[in-house]
Write a structure and sequence with these properties.
Blueprint lengths: L2 H4 L16 H7 L6 E2 L11 H10 L12 H11 L6 E4 L2 H12 L5 E6 L3 H9 L3 E6 L8 H7 L4 E7 L11 H9 L6 E5 L24 E6 L12 E4 L2 H10 L7 H9 L4 H25 L10 E5 L3 H10 L2 E2 L1 E2 L5 E5 L3 H15 L4
Parallel strand pairs: 1-10, 3-4, 3-5, 5-6, 6-7
Antiparallel strand pairs: 2-8, 7-8, 9-12, 11-12
Helix pairs in contact: 3-10, 5-6, 5-9, 11-13
The protein binds pyridoxal-5'-phosphate.
Amino acid sequence: MDWNSFFNPYILPVTPYSPGLREEQIREICEVDTICKLSSNESPFPPFPSALKAMAESLPLLNEYSDGSSHALTLRLSQHYGVEPEQIMVGNGSNELLCLIAQSCLTPGDEVVYGWPSFVVYRSSAQLAGAKPVEVPLTADGVFDLEALATAITEKTKLVFICTPNNPSGGVVSGAAFEAFINRLPDHVLLVLDIAYTEYIEDEDSFDPMRYFDGERPLVILRTFSKMYAMAGVRCGYGIAPKEVVTAFNRVREPFNVNSVAQAGALACFNETDEVERRRAINTAGKQRLYQCFDELGLSYYRSGANFIWVHMSDAAQRFDQLLKMGIIVRAFPGANGLRVGVGDEAGVQATIDAFNELFGKRQ
Ligand SMILES: Cc1ncc(COP(=O)(O)O)c(C=O)c1O
């Protein structure tokens, strides 16, 4: 077999996703017993009690396929957002939705515009389709630069991804910037607004993207149960999209793309608004403590609307290794001058502060 010419050439530029170290690998490296995994922007808390209960109750039915249309969840979402069920798409994580939206509309030569650094799947989903990724630097505050994004759009642009709060910088697009952008978006472009971390925003200036959704405008709003709702392991995300986009998605998705445990858990999350508030407040308090620590140590960082903070440092790879040995697992990106530090629970935040103080100079 000639493997060199065997594969689809469009998959070759794609860098496989690097999931980080496994628990047992970490145990080998760490010099402490308590490990804080702050590398994947997960919730430090378990799924909500009502979701756990619903998921446990769904287990005996795992001999059956899941509901291939995610019917109950789709209906619940359509009621929640006041849209038609045909305008809802449910996926195996919002990751699947990103990939399948790209797969369903891109052909070789198309262009895909997004800010960078951002979520790696924007790049890989473009590459897999043979489309050209057009990567636009973030603003100095780590926010998607929507003016520069608008300028980068050409006749060939099919898709624009906007991520707010952005992963990995945490920067939040303002309502005014979004409004100006969407008003000048040409109508041959589909805008995919990825707001995976939106529940963590505490900024007054944030906006409700549903204001711009009318079912006609080429706008998809993507959300997930993985972050605030703490269900990353079961995989469930959804999109609010024009019917045409949902129909295209249904052509390319797997028949049973969302498992029954995820559907049950997601449905149970809707009544948990108090718990969302409580967890947001804990995250915000954690961020404040971390900002204060970084300020005292003279480290610069982006202010974040999410559950992680990007800390600038020129020796990121070395600092990553040092933190790892101390049981603090953060995220390093090849060649990047900084580390993405997740906001843990209270103990996790304290452990992060202790480790940073020890590493960067301040002793208790
Ligand atoms: C910005 C962003 N979008 C989407 C996702 C995908 O989330 P999921 O597939 O778990 O819904 C992630 C995951 O980290 C993310 O950071």
